[in-house]
Amino acid sequence: MSSAERLNELKAHRNRRISTIRTVKDTLFISLGVLSAGFGLKGFLLPNNFLDGGVMGISLLASLLTRIDLSYLVVLLNIPFIIIGYTQISKKFAFKTLAAITALAICLAWIEFPAITHDRLLIAFFGGFFVGCGIGLSIRGGSVIDGTEVLAIYTSRKTTLTVGDIILILNILIFSVAAYLINIEVALYAILTYLVASKTVDFVVHGIEEYTSVMIVSEKSREIQDAITEKMGRGVTILKGTSGYGKTGHREKDLDVIYSVITRLELQKLKTEIAKIDPGAFVVENSVNDIKGGMIKKRPLHD
Q1: Residue 263's beta-bridge partner residues?
Q2: Which of 59, 121, 237, 286 is the most buried (most CB within 10 A)?
Q3: DSSP state of 159
């Protein structure tokens, strides 16, 4: 076997191993997500006639009004969004979503969870928490068990509305219908449940260490670069720039612009280090949803 063939074989073996590991992780995330959502629904929301937002909220509202089993409604109402996911995102995503939603329906139909509490505040909080945790874990596994995000992405491509705008409009409609058909108190508790669920989804998907990208423009860029790399142990990228209009008017001078990505927990320390070196530095911050590679996870956080 030639060296080139051997190298190709090693690459193929590595790719198969990575694919297998990814499949196992996705399956674990989706399975835990289904169990968490099932527990939140059957242990908190369903026994107490509570609602949530999104497609899950529509399913709960329809089940409450029609007495149709929720396990059937979860599948039926998500089918249009699975089709949208198939055409707009990917076939793999659609199949994984179908599997996750089917598993949730089976969980709701066959797995018994005890009713944990009848305190309405606890139901809204912990019901939303476990449902949101389930949705977040399924997203980590590459699928969804609530088609709201799929609809929002599809609609945002066809209109000037953002994904957040569409999700907000959809949930306002759901809560308004709930207030009209049932009562305003149910709608208010549904809003609380949805808020808890949405925050839990963000936490599960993005984690506690939310990333922030920072761009720093300073005439003392070298000292700031050393502080970031040596004192904070983070990587930097140097961008070549030319100053334009600043506090002292028009200037034409080449500058090194520092670009770095840090965690939210490190942001205040970075600002302190910059202030020590150049209090007049121009600093721009942007939230980053996810990141991989580089030095971001290679070193622990520093005090």
Answers
A1: 211
A2: 59
A3: S
Q: Which residues have C-beta within 8 Å of that of residue 171, sequence separation ≥ 6?
A: 53, 54, 57, 194
DSSP letter, residue 42: I
How many C-beta atoms lie closer than 10 Å to residue 235's C-beta?
A: 17
Which ranges of the chain would DSSP assign to H, the alpha helix?
3-40, 54-66, 70-88, 91-110, 120-140, 148-158, 163-181, 184-206, 221-226, 267-277
Distance between CA atoms of 242 and 253, rounded to whole angstroms? 5
122-160 in b/e burial notation, b at 16+ Cβ within 10 A? Answer: ebbbbbbbbbbbbbbbbbbbbbbbbbbbbbbebbbeeee
What are the residues whose beta carbons fall under 8 Å from the beta carbon of 43, sequence distance 6 or more? Answer: 113, 114, 115, 116, 127, 130
pLDDT in tens, 70-123: 889 999 999 988 998 888 878 888 899 999 999 999 998 898 888 888 999 999
Residue 300 has pLDDT above 70, yes or no: no
- Which of 62, 88, 65, 68 lies closest to 144 in space, CA to CA? 88
The residue to which tokens 């659609």 are assigned: 94
3-state secondary structure of 69: coil
SS3 282: strand
pLDDT one-digit tens code per residue, 65-77: 888 888 899 999 9
